[in-house]
Every structure is written in structure tokens, then in C-alpha cells.
Write a structure and sequence with these properties.
Layout (H helix, E strand, L loop, with lengths): L9 H23 L3 E10 L2 E11 L4 E5 L6 H9 L6 E6 L2 E2 L10 E4 L11 H11 L4 H14 L15 H13 L5 E5 L7 H18 L2 E6 L2 H7 L2 E6 L2 E6 L1 H6 L4 H6 L4 E11 L2 E6 L3 E6 L9 E6 L5 E3 L14 E12 L3 E8 L4 E7 L14 E6 L4 E5 L1
Parallel strand pairs: 3-8, 3-9, 6-7, 7-8
Antiparallel strand pairs: 1-2, 1-4, 4-5, 9-10, 11-12, 11-14, 12-13, 14-20, 15-19, 16-17, 16-19, 17-18
Helix pairs in contact: 3-4, 3-5, 4-5
Length: 398
């Protein structure tokens, strides 16, 4: 507690101390707030509800991805963050301030468009400088900032070129540099790598991640590419029909999807519909139509229905000629499905197999190619056992 200065009574000292404590608590509370908070935001176009009551927190310095199929509302949400659309309902808070009605050029947010939106008649240098000139920055400072951005995205020596003299990857870097030049608090990226070929897209993803870490900025990327979202983002929000269905880390999203739809949308998966027959010691016995009785680990969140879907990722389905060795795993816990190999796809690092079960259903397996020449590889029409453990399975509501 503060000591009383000459002429101050105890009540004044107490009031001063309480004020200091309140100020400290307010500072701590503000520190816990997310940089960006979206509260029940909705946007309609006529009778169509493009964004339907979305709420989301994004932390400072986070690389966040909005993932979903075309028409799910992710780009509309991004445009509201940028200021190009105004929400019909809800609030958008940046640093605790509502920016829903702030003009685009007046908010500390910048957006990199899918087609890059470069000015064809301007050089690389002038494209990057464009926003700085509109903001009224001094000419000398513009020169320094442009040079900084050119170095940041590794475009040295190309400053005088026009966009049509650049490769697709170089144009993407110019657009990125222009978006970063005004040092926004949040950078929005709308399918920024869609126009690049696969190899360039993969290398650019890594460069984006490194750039985001180095600058410490908040990036929000919109994409329909699941692999891209899982590569670059620390968290992913999956959207469908204008709603945000799940927000999770890439691992959580893949290993513990919140719904059957998300399980099917994110990655490849085998699904068997069935009925829960019994529960015993943390295991469920599920009688399925296509795979017989399957033993699965009981999920942490209790399943309220007896009608469920058993889901298994292909890389968790092993193949063998006679089934697993008896000492490999607890024998009674193994799920065994017999069938015939009908399709083989060699993908370099792994091989995927389709196995037609005796029931007629197809199960997919993805196995790593750990040897240069695998003498034990399986052939077409070969009879095999596809097996997996209870812990390999997910249980989802139908």
C-alpha cells in the first residue's frame, strides 16, 4: 500500500491504491483479449444468408485459416473484416474497438486479393509504394519502406519491371509486399496461392509461414485447399453454409473432427454406419452393415445416439496377407476385414490401396514406402486382411 505523503489522509492513500489496482486489473484484462473478435456477425444478400451468426476470436501474431468449400461464406467474412462489406448483424472488434463501419483505408487491416490486383502500368517499386503515397507518407520514407519490402520478399533487381514481365510467383510477392508496406495489424489473404503451380505453391507456403513468424503479424488466410490450411495455419476454422462449424488446430481437426461432414471434408476417411451394441471397459461394440462388428475406443464426449458412424483414416488401416502377428497388439482388440485389392496408386512416399471387402464395401489403406524396392508390396486381385485397433477409430453421429 502507498505511504501517505504530507497532507494526505489515509482515505486518500487507500483510494489511490485502489485506483492503481483497478488500472492494473484493466491492463491485465486487456492483455487477455484477442486482437480480433467477431461477435455473431451475419451478412445477407437478398434472401440468401451468406454469413450466419459467426463468432470467432483471433489472437495477436496468429496464422489463422478459414477453410471451406466454394460458397460457404469464408470470402464474404474476409471482405467484412477488410471493410468491403458491412455486417447486417453483429460486431467486429479490433483491439477492442468496433470497426464494422470504419472505411477500409481507415482500418489497420490490409487485404491481398486472389488475382493480386496489381496495376499493370506501374513498376514493382510503384505498385508497392501506391498505398504509402495515398496515406501521405513522406517521399524519403516511402523509398526506405519500399526498399525494405523488396528485400523482405526477395525481389531485389526487379524493382523497375512491370507485372507482365514477372512470373506468377514474382507477382504474388509484389502483391504481398504491397499489402505489408503499410504495416497492418492484420493481413487478410484471399486464396493467395491458387494461381501457382503445385511445387511453387508448396515453397511459397513455407515462405509465408517464415515471413509471418519474422514479422509477428496476424495473418488470416481463406482457402478451400485442406492441405494448404493445415500446412500454414496454427488454427483452422471450418465453414459451411455460412456457419463456423469447428475451430481447432490442424491436428485436432484431423484426428478429432466435430462432425461427419468435417471428417469427410478434411482429408480422406473410411466410414461404416452402424449401431452401438454394447459398452464395456472403455470400448464400444458397433455392429456395422459393411464391416461386421467393430470394436472402437469410447469417445471422450459421450455419444447420445445408438446410430453412429465408425471412421478410420486410411493411414491407420494396415494390410497383411494373414493379419497382424499375435504379439503385435492385443489379439482380441484387433478389427480384421478381409477382401481383395482392386486398385493401387503409387504416390512416391506412400502407396494407397483400395480393398473390396467380402460385403462389397471398399476400404482404403495408405501405407508408407519405407524401402526403395518393397518385395512385400501387394498386387491387384490379391486377397488381404485390412486391420486396425480400437484406438485407430473415431465414432461420429450419423
Amino acid at each position: 500500500m502507498a505511504e501517505a505523503a504530507p497532507g494526505m489522509d489515509a482515505r486518500a492513500v487507500a483510494a489511490e491504491s485502489e485506483g492503481q489496482v483497478a488500472a492494473q486489473r484493466k491492463t491485465e484484462a486487456q492483455a487477455d483479449l484477442p486482437l480480433l473478435r467477431i461477435e455473431r456477425v451475419a451478412k445477407r444478400f437478398g434472401s440468401f444468408r451468406a454469413v450466419d451468426g459467426v463468432s470467432l476470436d483471433v489472437r495477436a501474431g496468429e496464422f489463422f485459416a478459414l477453410l471451406g468449400p466454394s460458397g460457404c461464406g469464408k470470402t464474404t467474412l474476409l471482405r467484412m473484416l477488410a471493410g468491403f462489406e458491412t455486417p447486417d448483424e453483429g460486431r467486429i472488434l479490433l483491439g477492442g474497438k468496433d470497426i464494422a463501419k470504419v472505411l477500409p483505408h481507415e482500418r489497420p487491416v490490409n487485404m491481398m486479393f486472389q488475382n493480386y490486383a496489381l496495376f499493370p502500368h506501374l513498376s514493382v517499386r510503384d505498385n508497392i509504394a501506391f498505398g504509402l503515397k495515398r496515406a501521405g507518407m513522406a517521399r524519403a520514407d516511402i523509398g526506405k519502406r519500399v526498399a525494405e519490402m523488396v528485400a523482405l520478399v526477395k525481389l531485389e533487381g526487379l524493382e523497375k519491371r512491370k507485372p507482365d514481365q514477372l512470373s506468377g510467383g514474382q507477382r504474388q510477392r509484389v502483391a504481398l509486399a504491397r499489402s505489408l508496406a503499410r504495416r497492418p495489424q492484420v493481413l487478410l489473404l484471399d486464396e493467395p496461392l491458387a494461381a501457382l503451380d503445385k511445387k511453387l505453391r508448396e515453397s511459397t507456403q513455407l515462405e509465408l509461414m517464415e515471413l509471418q513468424r519474422r514479422l509477428g503479424l496476424t495473418f488470416i488466410i481463406v482457402t478451400h485447399d485442406q492441405q494448404e490450411a493445415m500446412t500454414v495455419a496454427s488454427r483452422i476454422g471450418v465453414m459451411d453454409a455460412g456457419r463456423l462449424d469447428q475451430v481447432a488446430t490442424p491436428r485436432e481437426l484431423y484426428e478429432a473432427p466435430a462432425s461427419r461432414w468435417i471428417a469427410e471434408f478434411v482429408g480422406d476417411i473410411n466410414l461404416f454406419d452402424g449401431q452401438v451394441e454394447s459398452r464395456d471397459q472403455g470400448r464400444l461394440r458397433v455392429v456395422t452393415r459393411d464391416a461386421g462388428t467393430v470394436v472402437v475406443a469410447e469417445p471422450r464426449q459421450p455419444i447420445g445416439k445408438t446410430a453412429v458412424a465408425v471412421a478410420i483414416r486410411p493411414e491407420k488401416v494396415k494390410l497383411s496377407r494373414r493379419g497382424p502377428a499375435a504379439d503385435a497388439v492385443n489379439a482380441h482388440a484387433i478389427n480384421r476385414l478381409e477382401g481383395v485389392v482392386t486398385d493401387i496408386s503409387y504416390l512416391g512416399g506412400m502407396t494407397t490401396y483400395k480393398v473390396r471387402l467380402d460385403s462389397g464395401a471398399v476400404v482404403r489403406s495408405a501405407m508408407a514406402n519405407t524401402a526403395r524396392i518393397d518385395m512385400d508390396a501387394y498386387g491387384l486381385s490379391q486377397r488381404v486382411v485390412a486391420w486396425f485397433t480400437p484406438d485407430d477409430c473415431l465414432v461420429l453421429d450419423q
